[in-house]
Design a protein that fits this description.
By secondary structure, the protein is an all-alpha fold. It has 16 helices and two strands. The protein binds 3'-phosphate-adenosine-5'-phosphate sulfate (PPS).
Amino acid sequence: MASNQGPVVVVILLVLLSVGVIYTLTQLLRSMLGEEETNSKEGYQDHWLFRLAINQLGYATIFVPGILIYKYVKASKYLERTGANCFSELLRCCFVGQDSGERFLPADSSSVNSSSSSSAARSAKQDALLLLLCVVGLQGSYLTWGLLQEKVMTQKYTNDNGDVGAFKDSQFLVFVNRILAFLLSGIYITFTRQPRHPMPLYKYIYCSFSNIMSSWCQYEALKYVSFPTQVLAKACKVIPVMIMGKIVSHQKYENYEYLTAVTISLGMASFMFGSTEMKGETITTFSGLILLCAYLTFDSFTSNWQSALFSQYKMSSVQMMCGVNLFSCLFTAVSLAQQGSFASSIAFMTQFPKFVVDCTLLSVSSAVGQLFIFYTISVFGPVVFVIIMTVRQGLAILLSCLIYQHPISVVGMLGIAVVFSSLFLRIYCNQRIRALRRRMQNGSTTKV
Ligand SMILES: Nc1ncnc2c1ncn2[C@@H]1O[C@H](COP(=O)(O)OS(=O)(=O)O)[C@@H](OP(=O)(O)O)[C@H]1O
């Protein structure tokens, strides 16, 4: 009994100790760098590097105890020494995986998605229908999400007492989105038949962290880069995703994929430049460029890492959604708690009930969007996913041009034509190559 409780006590002590040390460090840093001078606009606390440091200290509250526990479990060989109990099963789930030897699922598992193996088994028509589903799902949910996000962040809320207020904490919105996505996916996998999940949970931390960081860098970058730079970065996202695919999973791409990545980026950039007014910040600072590069790097890592996990472990997309959002909730919750934003956001919610309604709608559209994100990555991979998301940006602008009757310049129209021609070329080449491969496979099996 005592030997069973020993590790539990050690683990609890490790968590408390590291959380205590990190919390003290954070408070020390905040007071040293003059949190009291909040009235000064140019204070250290306003600099993005300071905010980044505070955020990283917050995330360390999760990382440091996790690493210490991992080291302790490994060094003490705790899992080999003890039989199955709740605590050891939890540690096994986090660090080793439930069944590390068995990585592949029974063939009848319908909810499993593997881009490479199952794509060979699907017909072109099934592929087209699935792609259409992903496109419609992603466009529908993220167009709604974009509209609601703009509404929540720019609208002034009023209540029956005549109070007026604006909500400015984007990290709280990210947290609410993640928690709803976690709860919905958790409920779904609890009540449906799911494939075995052999992967240790800690592997989700990488893409969860990069996802949170990409969101943070994106919001921060907006303060430091000019509008044209933002437009260019967003339009060219497919290129860093392909480069990251080479780094993370040694992905090989065909020439037509490189060519269409460049033409889609050029077309999107021309369309965005040709259809929107160049308003807002006009100067791009060095900080802005660093943040933008960090955004593109984290963002492209996230989907490539997720895709690599799908092909290695064959989990369902909802299982991955649940795992990633679990850690995203932890990261954002810790960061919000340290910055004292929970209390102010909840106070805003109680003061302005209309905000609660918008916030709920925003989270629902984000959760539905995430269902499609994970499904698209699992079936078609990160490059197709990012192309759909890039086209979404163009579609949002096109819709606003049509609704508000803004003119689109000739360059903008040419941009649309280039994007759609590239997409058709890509789909055509993809189908040709797959048909060729299928024919070659059939040929070799007939010979055998
Ligand atoms: N791979 C992956 N996994 C999970 N979630 C993801 C992924 N890619 C994008 N997202 C989330 O989608 C939201 C829109 O992201 P972006 O603004 O970068 O996309 S876009 O290219 O501008 O359309 C944004 O949501 P918020 O973080 O809530 O703002 C991203 O975090």
